[in-house]
Amino acid sequence: MSVSNRISDGVFFHAVIQGQSITVQLPPEITPALSGLPAASATFTGRDDHIAELLGLLVPGPDRQQAVLVAAVAGLAGVGKTELAVQTAVRALAEDGWFPGGVLFVDMFGYDAERLLSPDRALDGLLHALGLPGEHIPPTLQDRSRLYRSVLAAYAAQGRRVLVVIDNASAAHQVRPLLPTDGSTAALVTSRHTLDIEARLHDLNVLDEAASVDLLGQALRQARGAADTRVRDEPAEAAAIARLCGGLPLALRVAAALLADTPTRPLASLAEALRAAHTRLDRLHREDRAVRAAFDLSYRHLPASHARLFRLLPLNAGPDIATESAARLADLDSPTTETLLSDLARAHLIEPAAVWGRWRAHDLVRLYADERGVEHAVADDRHAAQSRLHAHYITTTADATEHLLSSSVAPPTRFPGWTAAMAWLRSEHSNLIATTTAVPPLGSPATSTALAMCLPDYLERTRSYGDMATVSAAAVAIARSQGDLQAEGHALNNHGYALREMRRFDDSIAAHARALDIATELDDRLAAGVALQNLGNAFRMVRRFEESVAAHRRALALVREFRDRNGEGSVLNSLGLVLGEMRRFDEAVETLGQAVAVVRELEDQRSTALGLTNLGTVLTALQRYDEAVEVHGEAAAIAVQLEDRHFEGGALGNMGNALTKLGRDDEAFEAHTRAVAVFREQGDRHAEGQALSNLGLVLVRLERLREAADAHALAVAIAAETGDRQGEGAALNNLGEALVETQALDEAVVTYTRAVEVFREVADSYNEAGALSNLGWVHFKMRRLDEAVELFGQAAVVFARAGEQGEERKALRNQARAHNERWLLRWDEYAEPLV
């Protein structure tokens, strides 16, 4: 008797009955695999690149094998991980031949303690979905996993490759038994954690503003129909809602649902409701959807030490926090803190910043963490934590500032040198400003006052005058509220300095005048000297030179009265500057020479370098170029010794200008090129722009005209980027000169016209008149003599208004020349030929 068993047209996993001529046939298609996939949302946007990347991982190769078998999508709660996975699965299924076996979907409920799905229970459901009856499913996890993987492998071998989507897993052990191992079946995994499952990791971020607004509009139209045009009609408020939701899709969908509830509610109403930070999470709640609830699930998963650090992080007022600062906040060592922060980042409750060692949180997560922090304020001792953080910022800022002020090579601080000190200050810039200007509970008056005393020197070196004005204004307000006149006067001097550099000269003069009044009221003659020197510097900027000299001479008398040699050197330096601008060069050289002598005697190298720089500038104006080169070279050498790269760049630029006057153009080119490199390395865009302008002038002399125009054009762009309108005007003037040399006269007209507009806007009459003259000469070259006559006339008027009689006469002579040329041209056109 012969026995024949044949299994065909299907996949069968169980005992085969032995018998004669028995045939077992299975249906050619397994349909249950598709039944568990959630419906894809009709409102989906801003994820095209993510979809493309994931599809690129899922596409089978030429032999229907797949290089990357598992893709793990991780991200913050509510960021749209599940939706991305579903959308990707739907598109993958639509591709011919990619997944003919369909898709398996399982929600692991990894962050919901009540519904958490164990891997063995998940496998039970998946095996049922694959068509296996319950009695054939083994009871143990290991056996279920083996059977599940065998079934998937068999489907793949039969040309019925399946896509597995494992959603909302919280740990690697939840996922590993569910991962295919046949080398062909692909899987998508989503989690709030970055899981170690040998997968290609894919981090999902929040939506940008444009996509957020688009999602808001889509969701409203989906709920209320195309007639709901509120997002289109209120674009500014739609953008505000997008920002207040932080681009988080869950928050945006809640916001859209709240708007859909009441079709007459304007977007402005919801935006206004969300602006109050302390109630924003309350507002982002509707029935079973709530941002706070989503965050709760992640928070409850944290061990106690992680939860405590998470709750303390919002005490930092700035946008991110360094590991070292977080360690001080939590009163832990840095290695332990880094481990905790890394774990929080893997849980996507925070994220690493662009630079390693810094961490930040989504705005809504930060609000949530602060709520939990307030609840646990006593247990966490939040007040002590905040005090530790503030003390860290104050002491470290003071240490770093020592390097900026010290005349020695390496003052005894935690920083090895100037470069390290500046790097720390730059990295903490936003935090220090935010901490200084924060009001309780994030800020404290004592911290604000202490930081406001330390920061001005750093802010001055980085030309962060807007921040300096903000910091000093906060210090003035605190001092006034406490009735501390001495502190108010000090803060007013810093405030006036910042306003001066922002070209708010009238406000600057008023601030310094008030500081002088306070010093007089307190009979603090040294403070009066400081206020007078600052007042004199402000007067110099508005070309009130006589008042400037008078203020400096009064200041000089006061500092000498108290034998304040540091103050004397500083005031002499300021006085020399104004004398130089008044073209009283001999007096300026003598005064600056005295300033240098004083600070040399004090062995104050930094002030010596500053005095030499100012002296060199006046020597250049006196055409004593060799001496100027020597002086600027010495200033540069001191800067190198002090590791002050920024000052070195300035000295090199000044030396380059003197070398240009000597006709040593190759050396000047080298000096200016080095200056550009220094400022670029330091990240000082403003100084880089000025150095590029100087370089461009030398390139013109070297007849490298295209390079000169490029350098000046970049200088113009940098000045505009940094908001330096004065510098923008100067760079435009220089660019115009380069364009004239290249015979690009039409471009030169546009450039000089812009320069005139800029100088007029900043009320710089002297340079406005110079730009008008330059524009007149371009028209003169183009034989547009009517325009030239008009422009030279305007220049003369503006020079006269600026009190520049010599320049006024030159402009009038130029006007006369253009007028004569116009007359001769017209004579040639209309005169009858001589017989």
Automatic annotation (TrEMBL):
<protein>
    <submittedName>
        <fullName>Tetratricopeptide repeat-containing protein</fullName>
    </submittedName>
</protein>
<dbReference type="InterPro" id="IPR042197">
    <property type="entry name" value="Apaf_helical"/>
</dbReference>
<dbReference type="InterPro" id="IPR027417">
    <property type="entry name" value="P-loop_NTPase"/>
</dbReference>
<dbReference type="InterPro" id="IPR011990">
    <property type="entry name" value="TPR-like_helical_dom_sf"/>
</dbReference>
<dbReference type="GO" id="GO:0043531">
    <property type="term" value="F:ADP binding"/>
</dbReference>
<dbReference type="InterPro" id="IPR019734">
    <property type="entry name" value="TPR_rpt"/>
</dbReference>
<dbReference type="Pfam" id="PF13424">
    <property type="entry name" value="TPR_12"/>
</dbReference>
